[in-house]
Amino acid sequence: MEGLAGAEVENAGAEVENAGAEVEPERSFVDAREPLPAAASPRLAPAAVQARPPYRLVRAVSVDVALPDQFPTVTLQDAEDAEDRHDPLRFRIGMAEGVALAHALAGTAAPRPLTHDLFALALERLGVEILAVRLTGRLGATYFAELDLKGPTGREVLSCRPSDGICLALRQRLPAPVLCDGRLFEVAGDVAPDELDVPPQPDASEPTDASEPTDASEPTDASEPTDASEPADPG
Predict the structure, then answer these.
(1) 161 lies in which domain range?
(2) Which has more pLDDT, 6 or 187?
């Protein structure tokens, strides 16, 4: 009897230990700063992960149009810079993204769900959480970013335009942190995106005035930025 009782106690302890192993720790802000572990994504080699620069928390403070420029400009400020040592980052984005970002910053809803509203709702319904949006580099006048996601199948990092990433981050029930490669504040010129994938090249028609950085792969037809593959919404 004593042997059976001891075995039962031992089995109960094993079950408790296994149950504890299944409990996943909650996401913290530190997790959002850290790069995706190499084992979690075949796209990233260990060397590339170790080369990740430190990221700084930033916040979108405004999106506006400075006439006669027809493209909105988004302004990002270093939220950790208490001494105002860093100048804000500014770059141009498409009109549709500017409207979506203005709604997100103001906390208002469009009469009908915008593209980012739909995408954010789809991610939520599918159980996918946005851990962070990271601005990873700048080539010429173009900024690059990535979306760090966590869902039922694991963690994934996807390349995205900064405007899309920020719009989605602000549309979460608990806004996801927007992080920025620290070199973007320290270096005036190009900052190579710290990733293995070759970044998308901006279209030849994209405005590339060095004084006005732009959103990576942003449509920039001089008359009106539109997606040529998508018909205009009649409503």
Answers:
(1) 38-197+208-215
(2) 187
